[in-house]
Design goal:
30% strand, 4 helices, alpha+beta, two-stranded antiparallel ribbon
């Protein structure tokens, strides 16, 4: 049985490869997407969930940005603050030109750098009931290999946010 996914094209649900990789433009930036399978066969209903995420990527990205903002502003949240602090300490100021104006006393460097966080990758795991999709965010792939990972359930509800490299 054949199934067509946006960006990935046509897949044979009875003869899947382990992984499919694509890149495409999203909000004026190139992002990567990967589709990962544990088995060579899958039911269509699992790919319907993936299709929903791809069709509504703008909505899910906006929702994820709200999760990232909530973590940043929360007293209990530390992932986003740690991510920003790490980069402000580790990356030379001259490499952050265009993202942070260190002479701007009205807006903190953290707030300025926060605005640079963008979606860079979406990973799909349709055989996994709990972790179907993972979104990776970065201040720039050319600046860092550290990412903010937003893990959501099949409905797009937040499971957790973490920093990885």
């Amino acid at each position: 049985m054949k199934y067509t996914l946006p960006y990935f094209g046509e897949l044979d649900l009875t003869d899947l490869e382990d992984r499919y990789d694509v890149s495409f433009e999203f909000n004026g930036e190139e992002i990567d997407a990967d589709l990962n399978f544990d088995e060579a066969k899958i039911e269509q209903k699992h790919l319907d969930i993936v299709k929903n995420f791809l069709d509504k990527l703008t909505e899910f990205d906006a929702k994820n940005h709200q999760h990232i903002l909530n973590d940043f502003r929360s007293e209990k949240g530390d992932t986003v603050k740690e991510y920003l602090s790490f980069h402000l300490e580790q990356i030379p100021k001259d490499e952050l030109v265009g993202l942070v104006d260190f002479n701007d006393t009205a807006v903190s460097p953290e707030e300025q750098l926060f605005k640079a966080i963008k979606l860079v990758r979406v990973g799909f795991y349709p055989h996994d009931e709990e972790q179907i999709v993972v979104f990776d965010y970065s201040i720039g792939r050319n600046l860092t290999d550290h990412i903010i990972v937003v893990d959501v359930d099949k409905k797009g509800n937040l499971n957790y946010i973490t920093m990885e490299s």
